[in-house]
Amino acid sequence: WFSPDPRGVLFFEDLNISRSLKKILKKDHFSIRFNHQFKSVIEACAKAKNRKGQNSTWITKEIIKAYTKFHEKGHAYSIEVYNQSDELVGGIYGVILGHYVSGESMFYIESNASKVALVKLMEFLHEKGIQWIDTQMVTPIVKNLGGKEIERIQFIELLKKSLKNKNSIF
Predict the structure, then answer these.
(1) Under a CB-based contact definition with an 8 Å cutoff, are residues 131 and 13 in contact?
(2) Residue 67 and residue 42 in contact, taking contact as beta carbons nearer than 8 Å
(3) How do residues 84-116 score in pLDDT, each as one tens digit?
(4) DSSP assigned state of 102
(5) Biggest alpha carbon distance in the chain?
(6) Is residue 130 within 8 Å of 169, Cβ to Cβ?
(7) What is the mean pLDDT of the chain?
(8) Left if phi > 0, otherwise alpha if psi is -120 to 50, otherwise beta: which for 127?
(9) Long-range contact list for 40-44, CB < 8 A, 24+ apart?
(10) Are 8 and 134 in contact (CB under 8 A)?
């Protein structure tokens, strides 16, 4: 289990959507689907070339197989972003246990597609009464959207509260 201290999180109340991203969201340039192409999303995350300073990925064939099985059992999700030609151009996948939601990895082929995926995920979670997501680390994209680091002890308390609610939101 990857458990950094401090831990990256994004709270809905801190969600910062730039003016330019708001324009993109309003234009409906992208369409969003949940859990339609999980394996495609995780494979695209594994192949993503836009990770500065990384020559390889932690998303191995074994990880893809394990997370796909986790998804089939209802414990992992994907958000897919499609362009107007209905091509998968971005997305995010993660774990969901009760009201605990993590964002494991994101990818984009078209600019802003991963940001759109994360914003749409946060809006969906907010509607379901979930006010935060575990991002593990605060990447530049997550930071620009309002992500921050918290102490591990604070994260563990949030995790315990989230796991108490066993109801699935998907």
Answers:
(1) yes
(2) yes
(3) 999 999 999 999 999 999 999 999 999 999 999
(4) B
(5) 45
(6) yes
(7) 92
(8) alpha
(9) 40/80, 40/88, 40/91, 41/78, 41/79, 41/80, 41/88, 41/91, 41/92, 41/93, 41/107, 42/67, 42/68, 42/78, 42/93, 42/105, 44/88, 44/91, 44/107, 44/109
(10) yes
As a whole number of angstroms, the distance between CA 105 and CA 14 comes to: 20
Distance between CA 43 and CA 45 in Å, rounded? 5
Q: In sequence order, what DSSP letters do the residues of 35-90 get, joined into one string? A: SSSHHHHHHHHHH----TT-SS-S--HHHHHHHHHHHHTTSEEEEEEE-TT--EEE
Q: How far apart are CA 43 and CA 109, in angstroms?
A: 13
**Residue 150 pLDDT grade (very low, low, confident, very high; cuts 50, 70, 90):** very high
> 51-55 long-range contacts, Cβ below 8 Å, gap at least 24?
none
Q: What is the pTM of this model?
A: 0.91
The residue among 158, 153, 142, 157 whose CA lies nearest residue 10 is 142
Per the listing, tokens 């500065």 go with 52
